[in-house]
């Protein structure tokens, strides 16, 4: 299962026609204690680059953009009661939402794990 | 010896305590540091601290079908209990009356008590906003006199007095700009805001329906004039600039910026939060500003009151003056008679006023205080005040810039606030730790993490009402804290150690918000 | 200058440390062509405390203080007795001269007070959550409208005729610059509060219905009926209350179907002050909407040692973090007015507030019965709390002015609030509180009889 990354610090797991999206360990580390996450509702149509979710720490609020176009199939309802999952398990239990992959070509522009790692090192 | 010590009282020499040992008390109180329970844990529905006639429940009423049936569950306290409750609470607050409050961008100066006395004169405090005009000539007089001072000090044409606070004043200024542009049939879409701006600026522009675009700062901490010029065009309604800016620097190019914006058909909003630095020294009107709010609760000493009330009159250029919101006071040129302009008489004389921003006349209680402050200082005293404010800030800058990184220290003198960064702190030590360390040293922390353009920013604004002795003590504390931060002193991470509370868990507060008190049982069920 | 501690030797030593020749030299970044070389011309110089006090006293004496008149004004600003304790507490420097409590370890006094205030307001309004206050009732009302638009994603704002016209004007001003569209019709001079007409104007585009309770003519609208009708259309109900003392006698708006309850808190603890500073109250019945709420919020938490404490929370809704995406542009609240409200409310408690409301209503009923007997006057209202509309057979604006000259502030002319006539110019809004005596009521009745009689004689 390939995992892709964006410069906005999102990760994307693609399994068949569905992608699961969350924010990276690096991102949660930068944000600090996550206190609130708003995920998109099932059925929401998202164009690539559209605002898809909101993640808030005590002192910062960030928008999460859709890295690819598609229709939301599920939001992670566990985050409603336990936003801290994004801190404890950002790249597994703390996923944000699932989306149909409407254009596989959009994935080509994203980074793989190695490229993302290099990208983050360049930021510090 | 016939008289022994019958009472047995032998004060003796005090024995020093072992400093590392805690001395717990059963009450949780520590002598003068008294814990205070919540009102809802102290009071009852049957307790009352005022004397009122016992209601006649059988009396006929004209309340219709909505006479109250449900209990409110509002506890009361007797007067002595009330006084004690709030007095105990008050002692858990830091305040200007207790010591230096060097919050950058907030101008926490001494609040003169004459202002309080004047605001409580019955002719000001006990007057209704809708009394007939003949019975409120003194109130109109205060508004007129304060307006005159604000106009003269800023070199502008008019002032809208009603905005309730700084952000409300900003909104008023931006709405005036939008109304003026619409009146000339030239709707524009974009407002340019430097990245160092106060967070209120973009929020205000967005609220007024504008798209907000950032303008980068140059290396010297000032607006990049060329970048600004490059972005100007027929879609730009105006710019919002803070001057002196949030890095504590005067925007040298202000006049050139204004000229360029005007050339491109836009208008200039100046955030006046930092007016204390330049009052009586330079007039924003002379620099081409079209609108600027003035925080009476910063520059003109009306008390902050633990977060308001504020007051944010907006001075306006000739281009914007006709668009000021209702109500306002005008003076008849011939008779000198003051008139109150409201909906009923706004008519033909002021056709383009855009209506009200608030009920009634604005923060009258702040106008009386600000005017009292201004008259006490006079034109000479205000100029002296800005001079001393800038002198105090530069003294702190130069007393600390060898131990703390001052990002723009090389750029020359600062205005009324000195900016430092966390550059040079040991790994894991932060601006927050220094701030909390200051609490233990008996000072209120400076503004932290603002402006955003500097990492770990510490913005220090001493104001003119601090003595050199206080500043010297603050310098001693800051030098010690800077050293501890550089040395990686772990005890700083758990500061404050001597405040009524240790660091509070803000993440828990935001994850599971508890915003009203609930009985313990209820809370558990919920 | 008595407020400036630096001495000339201090200044000299400090300039030396800085390496500047003079204070003027510190302003080197100000272009010389615009730097003033001395105090602004034409303005007076500094003055002693005695001289300033004298000047301000003279100005204050040009106003007629309510205590020096027979006083019956209301319409959104009410004169109640404020216990001496309230002013004592708010003048304690630890409250008066503190900043917004951003450093919670040394601001627990303000924070605990705000938490108590929020709870008091929520209970008074019959709501789940209240914020830490806003500028005043009129701006709180607009903020509620914006919140309703965010929640419903609709833009039609339906405002009842009974809403204070200044509040309506604020909404119209703001809506002019935002996507909102205000639908407002002037009130009719009738004994009922116009529920039928308002319900008829509701539709599927309506974001919110704004209803004042009691309304600007003192009438008590059927809030429950309006709320039921609005909810059927998917609209939210914003109840506006300008007289919180009324809620000691009336059912709380939150218990009658309102979704957002806003109002002016001035009546309790704050005093008239010619219209400001006042105290905006804001509460909601559905706690799930709290992240869409404007204004500061204080919440409970624990400190590192496990002790209960309070902090400002959910601050990411606010402008200093969300910048152009903030829920509102409000920054300052009305902290000290919230303290005054809270202290007064603590002194009253449920028992006191109920008794205070009963006394207001008792006197208002007496006044209505007495004024009804004035030839040429009739009471419009079937229902009221402590203010009602008296309809005279003449314009009330000049009459109010004439009576003021005789030391009677008879009330607020509806002609001033609604300058467009249509019968409203004959309306006089008369307000009675516990500060009025039965003698005051007789004075007003006699003054009206005299004035209306003169009119007939002429």
Which secondary structure elements does this structure contain, and how are they paired or packed?
The complex is a heterotrimer of chains A (124), B (526) and C (458).
Chain A: E1 3-5, E2 10-15, E3 18-23, H1 25-31, E4 34-38, E5 45-46, E6 51-57, E7 61-65, E8 70-75, H2 78-81, H3 85-88, E9 97-100, H4 113-123
Antiparallel strand pairs in A: 1-2, 2-3, 3-9, 4-6, 5-8, 6-7, 8-9
Chain B: H1 39-42, H2 79-90, H3 113-119, H4 122-125, H5 137-154, E1 158-160, H6 166-183, E2 190-194, H7 200-207, E3 211-215, H8 225-231, E4 236-242, H9 254-263, E5 267-271, E6 291-293, E7 314-316, E8 328-331, E9 338-341, H10 343-346, H11 364-400, E10 418-420, H12 431-440, E11 447-448, E12 458-460, H13 468-487, H14 506-511, H15 520-525
Chain C: H1 8-18, H2 49-61, E1 70-71, H3 84-90, H4 93-96, H5 108-125, E2 129-130, H6 137-152, E3 156-159, H7 165-176, E4 181-184, H8 195-200, E5 206-212, H9 223-232, E6 236-241, E7 260-264, E8 280-284, E9 298-302, E10 308-312, H10 319-322, H11 335-372, E11 377-379, E12 387-392, H12 396-405, E13 408-409, E14 412-413, H13 414-417, E15 427-431, H14 438-457
Parallel strand pairs in C: 1-13, 3-4, 3-5, 5-6, 6-7
Antiparallel strand pairs in C: 2-8, 7-8, 9-10, 11-12, 12-15, 14-15
């Amino acid at each position: 299962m390939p995992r892709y990354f964006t410069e906005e610090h999102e990760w994307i797991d693609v399994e068949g026609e569905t992608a699961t999206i969350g924010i990276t360990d690096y991102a949660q580390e930068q944000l600090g204690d996550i206190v609130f996450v708003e995920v998109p509702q099932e059925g929401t149509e998202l164009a690539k680059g559209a605002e898809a979710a909101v993640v808030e720490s005590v002192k910062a609020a960030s928008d999460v953009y859709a890295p690819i176009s598609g229709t939301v199939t599920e939001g992670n309802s566990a985050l409603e009661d336990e936003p801290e999952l994004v801190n404890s398990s950002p790249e597994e239990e703390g996923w944000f939402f699932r989306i149909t992959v409407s254009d596989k070509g959009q994935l080509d522009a994203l980074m793989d794990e190695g490229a993302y790692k290099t990208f983050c090192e360049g930021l510090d | 010896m016939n008289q022994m010590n019958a009472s047995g009282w032998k004060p003796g020499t005090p024995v020093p305590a072992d400093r590392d040992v805690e001395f717990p008390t059963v009450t949780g109180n520590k002598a003068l540091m008294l814990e205070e329970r919540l009102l809802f844990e102290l009071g009852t529905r049957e307790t009352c601290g005022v004397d009122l006639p016992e209601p006649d429940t059988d009396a006929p009423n004209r309340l219709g079908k909505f006479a109250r049936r449900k209990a409110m569950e509002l506890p009361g306290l007797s007067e002595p209990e009330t006084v004690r409750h709030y007095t105990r609470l008050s002692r858990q607050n830091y305040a200007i009356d207790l010591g230096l409050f060097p919050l950058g961008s907030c101008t926490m100066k001494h609040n003169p008590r004459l202002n309080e006395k004047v605001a409580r004169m019955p002719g000001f405090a006990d007057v209704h906003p809708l009394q007939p005009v003949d019975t409120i000539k003194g109130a109109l007089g205060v508004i007129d006199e304060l307006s005159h001072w604000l106009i003269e000090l800023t070199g502008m044409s008019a002032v809208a007095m009603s905005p309730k606070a700084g952000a409300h004043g900003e909104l008023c200024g931006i709405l005036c700009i939008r109304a003026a542009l619409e009146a000339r049939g030239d709707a524009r879409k974009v407002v340019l805001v430097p990245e160092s701006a106060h967070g209120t600026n973009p929020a205000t522009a967005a609220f007024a329906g504008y798209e907000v675009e950032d303008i980068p700062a140059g290396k010297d901490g000032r607006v990049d004039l060329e970048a600004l010029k490059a972005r100007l065009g027929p879609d730009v309604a105006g710019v919002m600039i803070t001057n002196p800016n949030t890095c504590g620097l005067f925007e040298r190019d202000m006049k050139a910026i204004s000229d360029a914006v005007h050339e491109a058909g836009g208008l200039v909003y100046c955030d006046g939060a930092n007016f204390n630095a330049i009052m009586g020294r330079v007039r924003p009107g002379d620099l081409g500003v079209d609108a600027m709010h003035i925080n009476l609760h910063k520059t003109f000493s009306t008390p902050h009151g633990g977060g308001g009330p504020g007051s944010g009159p907006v001075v306006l250029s000739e281009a914007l003056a006709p668009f000021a919101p209702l109500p306002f006071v005008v003076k008849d040129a011939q008779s000198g008679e003051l008139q109150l302009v409201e909906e009923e008489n706004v008519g033909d004389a002021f056709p383009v006023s855009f209506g009200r921003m608030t009920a009634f006349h604005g923060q009258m209680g702040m106008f009386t205080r600000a005017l009292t402050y201004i008259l006490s200082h006079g034109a000479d005293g205000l100029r002296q005040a800005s001079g001393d404010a800038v002198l105090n800030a530069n003294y702190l800058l130069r007393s600390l810039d060898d131990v703390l990184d001052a990002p723009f220290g090389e750029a020359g003198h600062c205005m009324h606030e000195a900016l430092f960064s966390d550059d040079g702190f040991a790994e894991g030590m932060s601006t927050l730790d220094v701030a909390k360390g200051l609490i233990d040293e008996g000072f209120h922390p400076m503004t932290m993490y603002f402006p955003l353009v500097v990492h770990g920013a510490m913005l220090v604004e001493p104001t003119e009402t601090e003595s050199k002795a206080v500043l010297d003590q603050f310098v001693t504390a800051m030098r010690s804290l800077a050293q501890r931060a550089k040395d990686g002193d772990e005890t700083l991470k758990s500061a404050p150690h001597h405040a009524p509370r240790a660091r509070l868990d803000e993440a828990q507060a935001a994850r599971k918000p508890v915003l009203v008190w609930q009985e313990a049982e209820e809370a558990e069920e919920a | 200058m008595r407020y400036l501690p630096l001495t000339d030797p201090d200044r000299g030593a400090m300039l030396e440390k800085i390496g500047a020749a003079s204070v003027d030299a510190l302003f080197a970044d100000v272009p010389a062509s615009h730097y003033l070389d001395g105090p602004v011309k034409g303005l007076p110089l500094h003055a002693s405390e005695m001289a300033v006090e004298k000047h301000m006293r003279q100005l204050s004496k040009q106003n007629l203080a309510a205590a020096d008149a027979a006083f019956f004004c209301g319409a959104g600003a009410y004169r109640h007795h404020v216990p001496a304790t309230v002013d004592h507490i708010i003048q304690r420097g630890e409250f008066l001269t503190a900043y917004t409590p951003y450093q919670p370890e040394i601001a627990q006094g303000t924070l605990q007070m705000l938490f108590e205030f929020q709870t008091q307001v929520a209970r008074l309004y019959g709501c789940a959550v209240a914020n830490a206050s806003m500028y005043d009732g009129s701006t709180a009302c607009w903020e509620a409208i914006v919140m309703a638009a965010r929640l419903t994603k609709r833009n039609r704002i339906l405002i009842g005729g009974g809403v204070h016209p200044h509040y309506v004007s604020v909404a119209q001003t703001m809506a002019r610059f935002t996507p909102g569209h205000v639908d407002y019709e002037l009130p009719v001079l009738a004994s009922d509060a116009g529920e039928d007409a308002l319900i008829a104007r509701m539709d599927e585009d309506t974001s919110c219905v704004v209803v004042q309770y009691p309304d600007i003519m003192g009438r008590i609208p059927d809030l429950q009926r309006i709320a039921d009708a609005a909810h059927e259309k998917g609209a939210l109900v914003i109840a506006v209350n300008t007289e919180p003392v009324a809620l000691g006698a009336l059912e709380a708006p939150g218990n009658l179907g309102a979704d957002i309850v806003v109002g002016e808190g001035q009546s309790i603890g704050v005093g008239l002050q010619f219209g400001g500073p006042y105290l905006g109250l804001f509460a909601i019945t559905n706690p799930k909407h709290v992240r869409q709420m404007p204004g500061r919020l204080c919440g409970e938490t624990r400190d590192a040692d496990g002790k209960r404490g309070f902090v400002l929370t959910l601050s990411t809704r606010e402008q200093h973090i969300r910048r152009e995406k903030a829920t509102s542009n409000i920054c300052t609240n009305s902290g000290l007015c919230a303290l005054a409200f809270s202290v007064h409310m603590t002194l009253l408690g449920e028992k006191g507030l109920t008794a205070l409301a009963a006394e207001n209503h008792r006197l208002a009923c007496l006044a209505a019965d007495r004024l009804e007997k004035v030839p040429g006057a009739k009471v419009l209202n079937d229902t009221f709390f402590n203010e009602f509309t008296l309809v005279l057979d003449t314009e009330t604006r000049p009459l109010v002015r004439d009576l003021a000259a005789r030391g009677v502030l008879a009330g607020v002319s509806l002609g001033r609030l609604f300058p467009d006539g249509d019968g409203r110019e004959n309306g006089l809004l008369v307000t009675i509180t516990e500060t009025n005596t039965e003698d005051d009521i007789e004075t007003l009745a006699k003054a009206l009889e005299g004035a209306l009689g003169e009119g007939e004689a002429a």
